[in-house]
Specification:
By secondary structure, the protein is α+β, with helices and mostly antiparallel strands. The chain has one domain: Malate/L-lactate/L-sulpholactate dehydrogenase, NADPH binding domain (Ribosomal Protein S8, Chain: A, domain 1). It has eleven helices and eleven strands. The chain has helices at 10-23, 28-43, 51-61, 94-112, 128-137, 175-178, 193-202, 234-250, 294-305, 318-330, 337-350; strands at residues 6-8, 75-77, 84-88, 114-122, 141-146, 168-172, 182-186, 211-212, 227-228, 271-278, 333-335. The strands form three sheets. It has a seven-stranded mixed sheet with strand order 2-3-4-10-5-6-7, sandwiched between helices. Helix 1 packs across helix 2 (28-43) and helix 1 (10-23) packs across helix 11 (337-350).
């Protein structure tokens, strides 16, 4: 039976999210960036990284601990490479930092054809796909990865979690070709911990071989899941390791100490971000077959991939685009009854009015 969703006006959602962040000491600008991000996650059906997850993460590891500093200022480090910048985020809110970094990378790409921003001392930015999608809608090819808030993934063949869920996110400017940007965005575990939390809220099981319990035994019960497993065995392990190595070159420290502020004081405990943006013009070899230009060639390649009997295949980003279209059709953001209950807990925390489920129409 399809799940029932209720339509929440975006301005109502954003007002509550901004109030919640400002209640925790964040500036108006940081809170607006957080609300913008959470609305985009909800709009595109990313229920594992909506405002509920964002504020829960901030409570556990951010302003509620020592991982995030409201009002922190970003330091841009001096360097000799004009198309690359290195930032010290000073534990600024991850969403505000990530939007600023992607904007800076796009400006560099406008000038140099490519832009790269490496961010040290960061707090987790949540859904990387949202940032590359934004850049792709503006005409750029974009990539980002980060180290996750905690090491909670067991390496292939191991028994103790020493890796984060460590996502990779790519965005491609394909709106002219197919109506939406292709966004390839995945955690390197079978599921993200946000998905475990969502399934626990909804009373649904985990997929097979996604997690283990405290004894290291596989479990499909999200309430018993202690650690996660990499997808694709050694392949997901290798992709997760990439993030840890990039972070190590930037300035990240030991994965097992990340966001564990009661541990070794000589080590750092923060995340790292990495952003790259490419201007499509900088990649254009000008020798496309059959007289096509670059845009026509991209469209032709996608058409060929989805041909030959593959017409029913989905493209990455299609599900998100369909979710956004459904939100637009209903005139708001879509949430389950369980999620609205969680929003009322947030409202109680920051002294905002409760939401009445009956006030929200059921989505079609």
């Amino acid at each position: 039976m399809p799940e029932t969703f209720h339509v929440v006006p975006e301005n109502l959602h954003n007002a509550l999210v901004e109030a919640a962040y400002q209640h925790r000491g964040f500036t108006a600008g940081e809170s607006a960036a957080a609300a913008r991000f959470c609305a985009e996650a909800a709009r595109h059906g990313i229920r594992t990284h909506n405002a509920i997850k964002a504020l829960h993460l901030d409570h556990l590891f951010g302003s509620g601990a020592r991982g995030c500093v409201p009002g922190a200022q970003i330091d841009v480090r001096p360097g000799r490479f004009p198309a690359a910048q290195v930032w010290n985020a000073n534990r600024k809110l991850g969403q505000a930092t990530a939007y600023a970094a992607m904007d800076a990378a796009m400006k560099l790409a406008d000038h140099y054809g490519i832009g790269m921003i490496s961010v040290d001392n960061a707090f987790h930015y949540l859904w990387g796909g949202g940032y590359v999608m934004d850049a792709a809608k503006k005409g750029y090819i974009a990539y980002t990865n980060c180290t996750a808030a905690l090491a909670e993934v067991v390496p292939f063949g191991g028994k103790f979690p020493t890796l984060g869920t460590n996502p990779h996110s790519w965005g491609f400017p394909t709106t002219a070709a197919i109506g939406y940007p292709i966004v390839i965005d995945w955690a390197t575990s079978v599921v993200a911990m946000g998905r475990v939390q969502q399934l626990a809220r909804e009373g649904k099981p985990l997929p097979p071989l996604a997690a283990v319990d405290e004894h290291g035994l596989p479990t499909a019960d999200p309430t018993r899941a202690k650690y996660l497993l990499p997808f694709g065995a050694h392949k997901g392990y290798g992709l997760s390791l990439i993030n840890e190595l990039i972070a190590a070159f930037i300035g990240g420290s030991l994965p097992t100490l990340r966001n564990r502020w009661n541990g070794e004081t000589a080590e750092k405990h923060t995340c790292c971000f990495f952003f790259q943006v490419y201007h499509p013009e900088a990649m254009n070899a000008g020798a496309f077959a059959a007289g096509r230009d670059q845009a026509e060639n991209v469209k032709a390649v996608i058409r060929d991939v989805l041909g030959h009997g593959n017409e029913q295949c989905l493209l990455p980003g299609q599900v998100e685009a369909e979710a956004a279209a459904r939100c637009a059709q209903n005139g708001g953001l879509l949430f389950s009854a369980a999620e609205i209950k969680a929003f009322n807990e947030i409202a109680a925390e920051c002294g905002q009015p409760q939401w009445n489920l009956a006030d929200f129409k059921v989505a079609v």
